[in-house]
Structures are given as C-alpha cells and as structure tokens.
C-alpha cells in the first residue's frame, strides 16, 4: 500500500507501507509502529530508504489534509517521530499548495535532503483516498 505526494514539475514522493513493526504488541506505543519504504524523486535527486513511521502520524496528517481540502486553505503536516521524513504544506486562496519537505537517512544524524515544490488542490483527493485506504488496513490501535 502506497501514498504519493506529487508536484507539478515531476516531483514525486512515494511512501509504501509494508507491515506493522510489532503486530503482537498490546502497547499503544509499540503496536502503532509501521515499516515503510520512502522514495523521493526530486529533479536532480533520488532518495530511497526504509523508515519507521507511526499510524497516528498518518492519521493526523490525513485529518489535516481533509480539513484543508474542505476549507480550500490551511496547513497540514506529516511529522515523523523518528525524523526520517517531514512534510508541511500550505494552500493559498487559489488552491495552490506549497510543499516543504525533509528526508533524513539514517534518521537523526544522516544525510539530509530539504526540498520544496508546488502542486494544486486537485491532487488532494487521491492523496486522501490513498491514506484512508492505508489506515483501513493499518488503523491506529488503542489510546496513548
């Protein structure tokens, strides 16, 4: 299962969700870790690595995207606890979205790629559908 963040000039970030890291755990903090692969194609750069994400990070991100999509303005962020990936996006009053991102591997001390690109509001519906499908298979389990 994958989700994609697409830019207007061939920028593409693809995050593939592979499995739960600790599927047999009953602890909220352990059971919600998911193994993933991150691939970022920014003109002049190709980034590809495995990363640990959390289902609650994806849930919070998609909820902010849905609000932004309904209001046709606002901000959404994907904040990764481990520091592998960060995305922030802002939508202006004509539906243009500016994405600012950072990829770091190994997390916390490795090589860092900072990037920015633009897309438009029309991409949000498919991104939201992809994230909803992932969260249907990998829902947030429990409460903190």
Summarize the structure.
With 144 residues, this protein is an alpha+beta fold. The protein contains three helices and eight strands; from the N terminus they run ββαββαββββα.
What do you see in this structure?
Helix 2 runs antiparallel to helix 3 (124-137). Strand 1 (2-6) and strand 2 form a beta hairpin. The protein is an alpha+beta fold and 144 residues long. It has a single domain (2-137), classed as Transcriptional Co-activator pc4, Chain A, CATH 2.30.31. Helices cover 24% and strands 47% of the residues. The protein is globular.
**What is the helical fraction, as a range of percent?**
10-25%
User: Main β-sheet: number of strands, strand sense, barrel status?
Assistant: 4 strands, antiparallel
Q: Compute the number of structural domains.
A: 1
Radius of gyration: 15 Å
Per DSSP, the total helix count is 3
In the CATH hierarchy, the architecture is Roll
By oligomeric state, this entry counts as single chain
* SS content category: alpha+beta
- Stretches with pLDDT under 50, minimum 5 residues: none
What is the strand tally? 8
Beta-strand fraction estimate = over 45%
């Amino acid at each position: 299962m994958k989700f994609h963040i697409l830019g207007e000039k061939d920028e593409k970030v693809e995050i593939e969700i592979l499995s739960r890291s600790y599927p047999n755990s009953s602890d909220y903090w352990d059971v919600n870790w998911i193994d993933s692969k991150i691939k970022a194609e920014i003109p002049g750069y190709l980034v590809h690595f495995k990363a640990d994400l959390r289902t609650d990070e994806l849930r919070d991100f998609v909820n902010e995207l849905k609000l932004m999509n309904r209001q046709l303005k606002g901000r959404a962020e994907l904040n990764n606890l481990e520091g592998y990936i960060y995305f922030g996006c802002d939508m202006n009053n004509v539906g243009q979205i500016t994405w600012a991102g950072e990829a770091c591997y190994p997390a916390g001390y490795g090589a860092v790629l900072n990037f920015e690109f633009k897309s438009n509001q029309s991409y949000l519906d498919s991104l939201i559908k992809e994230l909803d499908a992932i969260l249907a298979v990998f829902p947030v389990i429990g409460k903190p």
